[in-house]
Write a structure and sequence with these properties.
Blueprint (H helix, E strand, L loop, with lengths): L3 E4 L9 H17 L9 H7 L4 H8 L5 H20 L9 H10 L3 E6 L3 H11 L5 E6 L8 H11 L6 E4 L2 H9 L3 E5 L6 H4 L4 E3 L5 H4 L10
Parallel strand pairs: 1-2, 1-4, 2-3, 4-5, 5-6
Helix pairs in contact: 1-4, 3-4, 4-6, 7-8
Length: 223
């Protein structure tokens, strides 16, 4: 019986798409005001690489900019994301609380493992009260390698997991599960790619499907 579930955040629990474009556009508008960018905001390029750690995001989107300029853009982007979350412009995917309640009531431990930064993740967890179900939230910042498989390995080791599943929308989540001997559950949500989902053990299109994959424990009938 799978007793622990590790969830990705962006594109799995949190509908990042609702605040992503506006926040990214704000970041590139800042670059334009500084005469450091003169083209459209590369939103499609970001969608392609969604799920990789932010340092790699800025390496891809700003290949000709200095490390300092990337770091300044990263900091401003994070600031805009957090402000948009606190303004209520984001949203969880449907049924997150319902599924979390079901899992918790039936003895499952819930963790979050994300390539997002600590402050960003904590803002989402706090705003939506996820800590009433989630045992601990882990950021890629906790791992020097910035590798999702290593992050999940850290969680598995810390909590001495013997069985479990990783629920996520991108290849890094699927590989993190496989590299640690866990069940991989791919979410066919906003940023998912079919060629990546094909490598998952199970594919879902709604988080509510997890309630069927991990049903309530049968009550023993007292004689």
């Amino acid at each position: 019986m799978t007793q622990s579930l590790i969830f990705d955040m962006d594109g799995t629990l949190f509908q990042t798409v609702k605040i992503l474009e506006a926040s990214l556009d704000d970041a590139f508008e800042r670059l334009r005001s500084l005469n450091q960018w003169d083209a459209e905001t590369p939103i499609e390029k970001y969608r392609e690489i969604m799920g990789v750690p932010l340092p790699k995001v800025w390496e891809t989107l700003l290949p000709d900019h200095s490390l300092e300029e990337r770091e300044q853009t990263d900091a401003y982007f994070l600031e805009r994301l957090i402000q948009n979350i606190r303004k209520g412009k984001g949203a969880l995917y449907p049924h997150v609380q319902e599924v979390f309640s079901h899992l918790k009531e039936n003895g499952f431990s819930i963790y979050i493992a994300s390539n997002g930064l600590i402050e960003y993740l904590n803002t989402i967890v706090d705003y939506y009260g996820l800590d009433q179900w989630v045992s601990e939230t882990f950021s890629i910042q906790h791992i020097e390698s910035l590798n999702k498989s290593d992050l999940v390995r850290h969680i598995v080791g810390k909590y001495e997991m013997t069985s479990g599943a990783v629920v996520g929308d991108r290849l890094s989540d699927i590989l993190a599960a496989k590299d640690n001997g866990l069940l991989s559950i791919g979410c066919r949500f906003d940023f998912a790619r079919e060629e990546e989902l094909a490598q998952a053990d199970v594919i879902i299109e709604d988080l509510l499907e997890l309630n069927k994959l991990f049903p309530a424990k049968k009550q023993e009938v007292k004689k």
